[in-house]
């Protein structure tokens, strides 16, 4: 087993642990194993484009930290803004909290929620205290890395601009926030586990992971814009509800120390900032035994509610799918897309991105003047939402539960058509359509009802585009391959080529708007094209499937 | 009626340079319960996987229901049920969602599949988890789900690979009774297991595979007559040429004792 520098550093504090009655050797052993397991884990931020790296010696987590260094830059403007400490530092701490908290939930839930500890370590002759200490130190190591990556650069900037006192108070605040975030996360988990079962909690964690991935994708786009905030000066009026926004507690104490505003409002906020983390630690230690009990729920099965199939849903299904087999695959694919967490983590962020990206382009186009928006043709930026289709089409063959795919071979599936058409229809109807409706509603609000025929055309083109992608991409059985193989045979060349179809669709659309009734003609043409390509695309035999 | 359900003729299969099956031939008649046994790595699961079309690229002839399975027609699978040894399922689905999907793949109507799956789950004592995700099931529950998924479409031929793995004693009794009744109806069952006394009791015929070849084929009484040993376990040891268990056990324990 290899040794870790972190642990060697920890060795210097051996005496401290020993005085608390902790078996340091055992704790160190446990930590060593845990850190090694961490190295083999790919953090959420990387899952977007990570392939399983065989070099195990590099900690994937440490490598992911540079992204946080980048996001640290995002916080630099708040240091430069001036001396409106309450406002700028509240935002600073708010962003800091967001990153620590989401990263905590998405990547370190496995530590907080590890029930293997109970099964593997508890039967061994190791005292509980050492196990809990190992857990605490593990989290501490993780969160220090994260914090250092995030705030080092902003703090150095802060030191230069505001001086050493500012630095000291901010570091003090950051430590308090770290403690509060860890305890708050644990308390939230306790709360969820108290009322729901483990599956629900895993779903919640999954959605936070999706949110984090999306936030980072969008964050890249907005990073540059954040510097435009620099001139913003906002005077904050004291309000009672501000007491609940905990980054403000820390903004307030900096205001207090740096500007010497000794008003009761700032004093009370600052006091909250110190007291609440301390109270929450006390609460946590009191509730910990109950938490450990509830953790067992993670492996329990809750008694689930019977889901009635709605009549309307059935009618729509019959309308969409022709054969019973196709219906079966439609239902199956919808469920997999809805329930499979790995799939969601890989696909949902890009779906969210597809909503955001048209508006980024609209905003770029109308940086200064929004008045002639409603008569412009900027709504065609909705085509940007189509660029995620090839990626999702590739992803459809992957699943975290890919081993279940033996059923395809065992069951008498003669025709492959319903399998593929059902799955693609499920993607279009269950994933793409809701997003598209949302996007369309926003577009209609911006551009008026006049664009309705265009929006329908774009959706029909999206369907056609799906079929084209399916025809060009390698055909594989849906949900039958491991995500680990996802990046090995690089698809990026084909994906890029497929994306070139989008400007073609959009270009034709633009041309059609120039001629009278062009939109309607284009709508009709698009519909006919879809009918023509749909049928033959799915006529496949088993031989054409690449394993 | 002695109808031939499965005919295998000189089946051979290689993985890379390693020969897994080296000329296996047998015929299975309607209503037989075949105990298919052999040491780890003898090729039992491979034979079953070939018959199900999960593995291809073999040489030899495999005929099921009178149809050569390499002709590309999937129709013969409609009358086959399969419980795999390693229970890989799409466990992010609920039992309800998974079983109805499997049922529909076999051509059952959704409502019928749902009704049958639910009733069978209830009879097997796991009705309360029908609407829960399979990921939360215990090992026994998963195994019951797999058994049910293999029977939903009322198949003629069944492949059970360690089907009672993880079932409690009572459920094992139910399962044995199910097998007996199915066989009485004329269903053919192919039963692979390492638990010799169960195989000894339920099988109407035993096929022992060793190093890719058939080492013995016949009823338990025939095997007993051919060999000097009494139980199937002992016959198994004798036919696979294994007699060192005492010595190996002793060495194992002596290393355990070293400090």
Automatic annotation (TrEMBL), chain A:
Signal peptide feature range: none
Superkingdom assignment: Bacteria
Keyword Transport: no
UniProt keyword annotations, A-Z: Membrane, Transmembrane, Transmembrane helix
Protein name (Swiss-Prot/TrEMBL): ABC transporter permease
Coiled-coil annotated spans: none
Transmembrane segments: 61-80, 92-115, 136-161, 167-192, 204-223, 265-284, 347-366, 378-396, 427-449, 455-473, 494-511, 517-534
From TrEMBL, chain B:
Classification via InterPro entries: AAA+_ATPase, ABC_transporter-like_ATP-bd, ABC_transporter-like_CS, P-loop_NTPase
One Pfam family here: ABC_tran
Superkingdom of the organism of origin: Bacteria
Keyword Nucleotide-binding among UniProt keywords: yes
Keywords attached to this entry: ATP-binding, Nucleotide-binding
CDD domains: ABC_DR_subfamily_A
Residues in the signal sequence: none
GO MF assignments: ATP binding
Positions of the ABC transporter domain: 6-236
Ligase in keyword set: no
Matches recorded under PANTHER family: ABC TRANSPORTER, ATP-BINDING PROTEIN
Protein name: ABC transporter ATP-binding protein
Organism from which the protein derives: Mesobacillus maritimus
């Amino acid at each position: 087993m290899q040794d870790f520098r972190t642990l060697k550093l920890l060795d210097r504090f051996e005496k401290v642990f020993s005085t608390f009655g902790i078996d340091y050797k055992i704790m160190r052993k446990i930590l060593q194993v845990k850190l090694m397991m961490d190295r083999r884990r790919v953090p959420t931020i990387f899952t977007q484009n990570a392939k399983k790296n065989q070099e195990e010696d590099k900690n994937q987590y440490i490598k992911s930290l540079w992204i946080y260094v980048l996001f640290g830059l995002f916080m630099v403007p708040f240091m430069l803004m001036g001396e409106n400490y309450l406002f700028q530092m509240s935002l600073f701490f708010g962003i800091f909290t967001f990153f620590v908290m989401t990263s905590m939930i998405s990547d370190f839930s496995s530590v907080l929620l590890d029930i293997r500890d109970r099964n593997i370590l508890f039967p061994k002759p190791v005292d509980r205290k050492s196990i809990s200490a190992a857990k605490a130190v593990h989290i501490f190591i993780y969160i220090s890395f994260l914090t250092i990556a995030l705030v080092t650069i902003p703090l150095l900037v802060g030191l230069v601009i505001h001086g050493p006192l500012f630095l000291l108070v901010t570091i003090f605040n950051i430590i308090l926030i770290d403690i509060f975030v860890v305890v708050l996360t644990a308390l939230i988990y306790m709360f969820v586990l108290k009322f729901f079962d483990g599956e629900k909690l895993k779903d919640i964690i999954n959605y936070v992971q999706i949110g984090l991935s999306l936030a980072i994708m969008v964050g890249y786009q907005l990073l540059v814009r954040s510097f435009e905030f620099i001139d913003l000066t906002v005077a904050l009026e004291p309000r009672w509800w501000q007491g609940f926004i905990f980054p403000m507690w820390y903004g307030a104490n900096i205001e207090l120390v740096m500007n010497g505003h000794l008003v009761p409002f700032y004093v009370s906020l600052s006091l909250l900032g110190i007291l609440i983390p301390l109270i929450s630690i006390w609460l946590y230690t009191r509730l910990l035994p109950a938490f450990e009990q509830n953790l067992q729920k993670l492996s329990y099965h809750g008694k689930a509610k019977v889901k009635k199939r709605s009549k309307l849903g059935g009618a729509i299904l019959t309308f969409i799918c022709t054969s019973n087999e196709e219906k079966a695959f439609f239902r199956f694919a919808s469920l997999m897309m809805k329930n499979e967490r790995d799939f969601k983590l890989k696909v949902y962020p890009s779906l969210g991105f597809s909503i955001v990206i048209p508006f980024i382009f609209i905003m770029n186009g109308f940086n200064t003047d929004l008045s002639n928006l409603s008569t412009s043709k900027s709504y065609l930026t909705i085509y940007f939402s189509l660029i995620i289709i090839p990626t999702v089409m590739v992803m459809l063959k992957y699943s975290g539960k890919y081993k279940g795919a033996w059923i395809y071979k065992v069951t008498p599936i003669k025709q492959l058509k319903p399998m593929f058409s059902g799955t693609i229809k499920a993607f279009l109807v269950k994933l793409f359509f809701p997003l598209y409706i949302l996007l369309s509603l926003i577009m209609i609000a911006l551009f008026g009802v006049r664009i309705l025929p265009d929006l329908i055309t774009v959706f029909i083109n999206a369907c056609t585009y799906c079929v084209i992608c399916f025809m060009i991409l390698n055909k594989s059985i849906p949900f039958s391959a491991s995500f680990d193989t996802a990046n090995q045979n690089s698809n990026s060349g084909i994906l890029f080529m497929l994306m070139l179809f989008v400007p073609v669709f959009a270009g034709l659309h633009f041309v059609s708007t120039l001629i009278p009734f062009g939109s309607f003609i284009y709508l009709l043409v698009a519909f006919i094209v879809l009918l023509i390509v749909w049928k033959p695309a799915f006529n496949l035999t088993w031989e054409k499937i690449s394993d | 009626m002695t109808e031939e359900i499965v005919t295998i003729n000189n089946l051979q299969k290689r993985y890379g340079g390693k020969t897994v099956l080296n000329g296996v031939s047998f015929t299975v008649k309607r209503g037989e319960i075949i105990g298919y046994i052999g040491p780890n790595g003898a090729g039992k699961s491979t034979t079953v996987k070939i018959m199900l079309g999960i593995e291809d690229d073999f040489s030899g002839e495999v005929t099921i229901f009178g149809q050569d399975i390499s002709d590309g027609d999937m129709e013969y699978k409609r009358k086959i049920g399969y419980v795999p040894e390693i229970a890989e399922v799409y466990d992010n689905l609920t039992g309800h969602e998974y079983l109805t999907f499997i049922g529909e793949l076999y051509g059952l109507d959704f409502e019928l599949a749902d009704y049958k799956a639910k009733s069978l789950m209830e009879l097997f004592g796991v009705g309360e988890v029908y609407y829960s995700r399979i990921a939360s099931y215990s090992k026994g529950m998963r195994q019951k789900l797999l058994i049910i998924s293999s029977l939903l479409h009322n198949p003629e031929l069944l492949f059970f690979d360690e089907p009672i793995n993880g079932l409690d004693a009572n459920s094992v009794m139910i399962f044995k009774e199910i097998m007996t009744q199915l066989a009485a109806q004329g269903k053919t069952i192919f039963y692979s297991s390492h638990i010799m006394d169960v195989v000894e009791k339920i099988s109407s015929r035993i096929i022992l595979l060793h190093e890719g070849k058939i080492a013995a084929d016949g009823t338990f009484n025939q095997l007993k007559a051919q060999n000097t040993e009494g139980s199937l376990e002992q016959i198994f040891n004798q036919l696979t040429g294994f007699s060192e268990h005492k010595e190996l056990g002793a060495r194992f324990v002596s290393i355990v004792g070293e400090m």
